[in-house]
Specification:
single chain; alpha+beta; Rossmann fold; Dna Ligase, domain 1; D-amino Acid Aminotransferase, Chain A, domain 1; 4 domains; 8-stranded antiparallel beta sheet; 5-stranded parallel beta sheet; 21 strands; about 20% strand; globular
């Protein structure tokens, strides 16, 4: 079932990809299959990146920092106008969930490939998203928005401990604190508020009941501008390290056809209620009794979208482009049935034997896994210099099988075949998880790593960020030294400071 099987209709001739790395390569390839010219943008450190050489056109970005270059909406629009791009695909991360980008696109007569600014704003704020989904009838974890001057202790007592304090405008574990006892509430509340303000520019928080050992299950939705919204099953995303997803699979080992239908219908209804256009993800917590609770909406393409593509035979990036161009969805809900099983491992340039210290560097040799049911989404090539300015993910390895066990075994085979020299990777971490008896049995929760492999959960997200910043600073400090000497001295200094951070 292909989105290209429909009759030809007006389509974009040129799309700018406002992103870099693996996801930029993914969008470029989708454009190529649709006969659309692709426009890449790049910060100076990405001048030799694969997405730059693959695109039909490529334009440099200026910026005080590499990250700032990709966040500069005015500059992105300027390049789009100069390149004659009719639409902008934001990928994920960077400006993908910033409502200022679709607003600027509208003002410049350019199509944003994603939902409207109003929808992004409404669903991007967790408090507003909870209110919207409550009105749509979705089940929520018991909780409350926190307003200035509200008696937080009273709210927590009413909900019942343990509770979670969360940043209303963020994610990725930042601005989040679990509170087990009333005596810890004030201190952890202030920590969450401070971190939220630093990370997201807002100290707006909310509080909810902490669900013990939940599964993290998300529903993929697609909406069009004709009022239709469908769901494409679920993804199990419970294997997380410090709130960062590391292994995803579709379908979920615990979700029955009846539960899939109920969760999917709830998500599709929520999408229709807000007028959602494009690809989006409704995230839920599922407890031990298979009750599900709305968590949040990601108003963009997810990193883990390939597992859904494998199981449903749908190209989600092409679907995004089609509905953004005004085409109606080509599928009816009853036509969408899951087939087989898929896993995705997020391969990062982190050292799992050194508390997952980010270790960017140059890829010296590269052997890519191949074979039946193996897919690799990456921007790596031999000689590529992994920059320090961005997140540590360098590849997504996806396997597909007729059932969960075949897909798992294919993943283990692909991981063994996948060899990168020059940088450490998280591959040993993935192998440990996939070979664990409880994982094989499908007994998963967001606490899986802490419960079964606690040595892999020692370093916090904050530690990683601090160490990454330290490594970047030391690299700059020693940039004038010969390469080998610089690496040796930088590493020695990093480990001296790493001991301080991790004590």
């Amino acid at each position: 079932m292909s989105i290209n099987s429909r009759e030809a209709a007006p389509m974009f001739s040129r799309i700018l990809i406002a992103n870099r790395g693996e996801i930029a390569v993914r969008v470029i390839r989708a454009c190529r299959q649709m006969g659309i010219a692709s426009v890449a943008v790049y910060a100076d450190c990405d001048r030799d990146s694969l997405h730059v050489s693959l695109a039909d056109f490529a334009y440099p970005l200026e910026g005080a920092t590499p990250r700032a270059a990709y966040l500069d909406i005015e500059q992105l629009l300027k390049v789009a106008r100069r390149a004659g791009a009719e639409a902008i695909h934001p990928g994920y991360g960077f400006v993908s969930e910033n409502p200022a980008l679709p607003e600027a696109c509208v003002a410049n007569g350019i199509t944003f490939i994603g939902p409207s600014a109003d929808v992004i704003r409404r669903l991007g704020n967790k408090n507003q998203a909870r209110d919207a989904m409550k009105a749509a009838g979705l089940p929520l974890v018991p909780g409350s928005n926190l307003t200035q001057g509200e008696d937080v202790a009273q709210v927590a007592q009413q909900i019942g401990y343990p509770v979670l304090i969360k940043a209303a405008g963020g994610g990725g574990g930042r601005g989040m604190r679990k509170v087990d006892h009333p005596k810890d509430l004030d201190n952890l509340f202030q920590q969450a508020r401070s971190e939220s303000l630093t990370s997201f520019g807002s100290d707006e928080l909310f509080i909810e009941k902490y669900v013990v050992h939940p599964r993290h299950v998300e529903i993929q939705v697609l909406g069009d501008s004709h009022g239709q919204a469908i769901y494409l099953g679920e993804r199990e995303c419970s294997i997380q390290r410090r709130f960062q997803k590391m292994i995803e699979e579709a379908p979920s080992p615990v979700v029955t056809p009846e539960l899939r239908q109920r969760m999917g219908q709830a998500a599709a209804k929520g999408a229709r209620e807000v007028g959602y256009v494009g690809a989006g993800t409704f995230e839920f917590l599922v407890d031990k009794d298979l009750n599900f609770y709305f968590l949040e909406v990601n108003t963009r393409l997810q990193v883990e979208h390939p597992v859904t593509e494998q199981v449903y035979g749908v190209d989600l990036v092409q679907a995004q482009i089609e509905v953004a161009a005004g085409h109606p969805l080509p599928w009816k809900q009853e036509e969408l049935k899951p087939r087989g099983w898929a896993f995705e491992c997020r391969i990062t340039c982190e050292d799992p034997y050194r508390n997952f210290l980010p270790c960017p560097g140059q890829v010296q040799q590269l052997r890519l896994p191949q074979g039946a049911g193996v897919r690799l989404d990456t921007h790596l090539y031999p000689g590529y210099q992994v920059p320090q300015a961005f997140d540590s993910m360098v590849a997504k390895l996806i396997t597909f099988g007729e059932d969960r066990e075949q897909a798992r075994r294919r993943m283990l085979g692909a991981l063994a075949e996948f060899q990168i020299t020059g940088i450490p990777t998280s591959i040993p971490f993935h192998q440990q998880i996939l070979e664990h008896p409880e994982f094989i049995a499908g007994n998963l929760s967001t606490h899986f790593i802490a419960d079964h492999l606690p040595h892999l959960a020692r370093c916090s997200a904050g530690d990683i960020q601090e160490l990454a910043a330290l490594a970047a600073a030391l690299e700059s400090l020693f940039s004038n030294a010969p390469p080998a000497a610089a690496a040796t001295r930088s590493e020695a200094q990093v480990w001296k400071e790493a001991g301080r951070v991790l004590r």
